[in-house]
Every structure is written in structure tokens, then in C-alpha cells.
Amino acid sequence: MSGAHTAVDVIRTKRDKGRLTDEQIDWIIRSYTDGDVAEEQMSALLMAIFLNGMAPTEISRWTAAMINSGIRMDLSKVGRPTVDKHSTGGVGDKISLPLAPLVAACGAAVPQLSGRGLGHTGGTLDKMEAIAGWNPMLSPEEMAAQLADLGAVICAASADLAPADRKLYALRDVTSTVESIPMISASIMSKKIAEGTDALVLDVKVGSGAFMKSHEQAAELARTMVGLGAAHGVRTSALLTDMSIPLGRAVGNAVEVAESVEVLAGGGPADVVELTIALAREMVSLAGLDVDPADVLASGKAMDSWRAMVAAQGGDPDAPLPEPKEKLLVRAAQSGVIADMDALAVGVAAWRLGAGRARKEDPVQPAAGLLCLAKPGESIEAGAPLFELHTDTPERFADAQQLLDGSVTYAPAGNAVERTGIVLETIRSV
Ligand code: URA
After folding, report:
1. pTM
2. Which CATH number characterizes residue 117's domain?
């Protein structure tokens, strides 16, 4: 196959709701990665896929073509079962930080390749970089060696892992074609399958702070990804979890590291502990290990594993975390029970304070973020502190405060506000 004419045929097929052949998919992914298909042609194809969807066989081939665009890592010599977790992204989602060392302490190896935040959802690497000296850049050989030695690594993906996804994701970002179930599934699963893990647990977030706002959409995304994992020999399950309110009390970078360390020390907010244990149980089960992560967390072994993992990557687990130049308290507008707290508004507020970035080349402030001093279900008096805002650039306070003022709803004092458990559904391959 060759040339612009073929790209036009591929676009027309999808525009007219047709089905792409395996050959067409392999060709377009390869040619786009090599720079032989123009950005405007790929943009048109992405929009056609966004609008008309893809059949399961097309998604599977598209994913395989993205995997084949780069290296596939070999973790077979790690000497422990490998199992990873991927979250579709949420507000206050620091779970990878306590989870990777916990599952390592259970006897598995967790190759946690992570990304940086874009928009209101934070990135694991941005959070970990709040730890003095910590280095996210490991070669595939260094990563495999650390996994064999300690069982846990959190690091950046190397540039030659699914390079087609790197290019396509940037283009989806600027063509408003990100929120497509076939494209999200292929993007996430190509990277995870290329990473070489034996098993994978997906944390598919549902609610205002997530990509997928409804349970039905999230379940479809989860089923598509679980099917892709099974088709490529990776044992995969998915937990649908609530992202309508922030996870835990801390949203930002250093503040989320501090909260993760509290969890590893046996404390921390109940929802963060509940989700960490639920994901760890699923991971340990897929890895074929007979151990309860709740016991391992209580034993302190997960904390030992965290300290070793941080130190192995140049970080000082005892170094004080960065403090913001300025803090500001936002107070409750009325007395009562907090009925709801909009995760999206809280995430955007933390982002505006400097915890996140608007463009991928922007820096983040390690100390920026916020603490939710009260959460849904808790009582509060009018004028009592509700949020504590952290930033190095106080001119950002007004913007964040405005967002937070509208993010909370109250029920009359004495009312019970019931919330469901954090795990809404588990989807396993049949
Ligand atoms: N995360 C990814 O890696 N890819 C997507 O498409 C969406 C979220």
C-alpha cells in the first residue's frame, strides 16, 4: 500500500461507517508513526472513528498495530509474577503510590509505568517528583533489575514503547477526539501490553471527575479493555470506582505523597485505604498469590517496600516534602452536613493553584494543591475551615476559591448522607 490516495480510502471507509481491513489498520498506524500520513489526514480519520466507532475486531487490530509500533518489554526474568494497575484518571487519585509497594510486599512485581498530569487529573510522576532526588527516568534494563530486586518500580515509559500512541494521543488532544471508547481502550492497552506485564487491573473511574461520566459508558470501556487484555494474553480485570467526589482529602502533588505515606503507615482516609486494598486484592489474585494485602499493610512491610523503592530511584524517603509559599483557608458557607463535593471543580481548583499543567511542556509546582478538611457525610459549622489551599503563586487563590465555592452542597444538620462503597462493579474476563 502506498501514498495519500490510500489514506483517503481509509478515511472514506470510516466516514461511510465501513469496517477497516487489518491491512488498512497496519498501514495507517505504521505510516502515521513514520510521518508518511499527514496530520490533517489522521485528524480526519480520528474524527470519523470518534463519530462512527469501531468494531471489536478493528479495535483489537488497531491496538496490535500500536503495540508493534515500538518495543515490547520482556519481564520474564524478573522471577516473580508481574501485575500492574492502570487508572483512567481522577481527582486525588494517588493510589499507585501505596499500591505498588503493597503488592510488591505481597510477593508480586509491579512494573508501574506512569505518566504526567494533563488538565484536572494529576499524574503519578508529578506527585513522586515532589520527593527530593527521586528519578523517574529508568532504562528498561534498570527497571527490570529493580523489579527483580524490590518488586516495585514507578517510572516513565521509554519513548520507544508504543510510539504510535504518543503521537496519536497528542493529536487527539488538539482535535477533541480523546473521549472515544475505542481510542481510549487501544491507547491504554497498547502501552500496558507492550510493557510486558502478565496481568493487569484497571481502575475505571466513573463520575464528574472522570473521563466517563456514566456507569454505562465506564462499563463499556472496562469490558472493551478487559477483552483486549485477554486477546493479547494479559490476564485483565477492571474495577469501576466512584469518582464523583475527590478520593481522600489531599489533591495535588506533595500533599498526595504525604497522604499515601499515611496509608502505608496504617492510617489515611478510609476511602483511599478501601480502594488500595480492593485493587491490591484483585492484583494479588491475578498474580496467583495466596495472601491478604490488608494483613501485609498492617504488618508494615508495605512501608519498608515504599522506602526501598523511593531510595532505589535516588529519592530520600525521610526528606521533608516541599511546603507552599502561601496557604489560604476556604470556609463553609453554611452549617449542615456536606451532601456532595464536585470532584471536577476540586480537581480544576488544584490545577489552577499550580498542581497541574495546561500544556505538556509546562512545569508543575510540587507544593501546590489543596486539602479537603471536610468531606461528604461530615458535619460542619458555617465559617469553619472547609478547604486549605496551597500555592507558590497566591494570585491564583481567587480563581480556585471561586471554583470551590460552587463545588459543595449541604444537607440540613442531623441528616444522614449515605454514600455507596467506592467499588461500584468488578468486570472480569469470562
Ligand atoms: N489515558 C491514556 O493513556 N490514553 C487515553 O486515551 C486516555 C487516558
Report:
1. 0.95
2. 3.40.1030.10
